Amino acid sequence: MANREAAIQTRRGRPRRATNLTILPPLMRVLFTEGENLVLLAVVRCLSGKWIGSVARRRLMMESGRSLATVEKTMRHARKVGLIREWDDPQRGYLTEIISTEWRAWLAGQPEFAGASRRG
After folding, report:
1. Which site from 60, 64, 94, 107 is most exposed, i.e. has the minimal number of CB atoms within 10 Å?
2. Which domains does the chain have, with CATH numbers?
3. pTM exceeding the 0.90 threshold for the entire prediction
4. What are 86-95's pLDDT values in tens digits?
5. Containing H/E element for 82?
């Protein structure tokens, strides 16, 4: 278990910096870099108060100010740790859903994202 935690704290040999962004609960915050947290903030804003919706990568790039590589890496990492789920719906397009109950509960308690307590 200690090896896994050490691997989470560093990526490519560089230590992760702590971030003050509050898009994730404190225990989840250390799993992502500051740039990745900006992408996750853009995901929540693009979902506009719902848990599920269509979020284009290009829009995430514009909202977060990060590159496509960072957006893709963040979304892949968020899927891997169980924060989000993505799939292709023939009628609605490519959908993203926040599936982490801990993240949902934390977002519902935040004044900025309080509207996200309803399911879309």
Report:
1. 94
2. 30-113 (1.10.10.10)
3. no
4. 999 888 888 9
5. none
